[in-house]
């Protein structure tokens, strides 16, 4: 029984696959990136200026 359908879930072969690089990052973002770099890595159009850089 499905109570809510908030978003369409894609099959595994249709989703972007991210890899974990210990002490480096997860997927496109890397540790130490600022908000603009992270947005660019994730291809976001409107970065949240209140975000804190990943350190």
Write up what this structure looks like.
By secondary structure, the chain is largely without helices or strands. The protein has a domain at 19-47. 15% of the residues lie in helices and 7% in strands. It contains one helix and two strands. It has one helix spanning 35-42, and strands at 20-21, 25-26. A two-stranded antiparallel ribbon has the order 1-2. The radius of gyration is 15 Å and the shape is elongated. It starts with 19 loop residues before the first strand and ends in a 13-residue tail after the last helix. The mean pLDDT is 78.
Helix content: 10-25%
What's the N-to-C terminus distance? 42 Å
Shape: elongated
Q: What is the beta-strand fraction? A: 5-15%
Keywords:
55 residues, two-stranded antiparallel sheet, 1 helix, 2 strands, 15% helix, elongated
Furnish the topology, listing elements before pairings.
Blueprint: E1 20-21, E2 25-26, H1 35-42
Antiparallel strand pairs: 1-2
Summarize the structure.
With 55 residues, the protein is largely without helices or strands. It is built from 1 helix and 2 strands, in the order E-E-H.
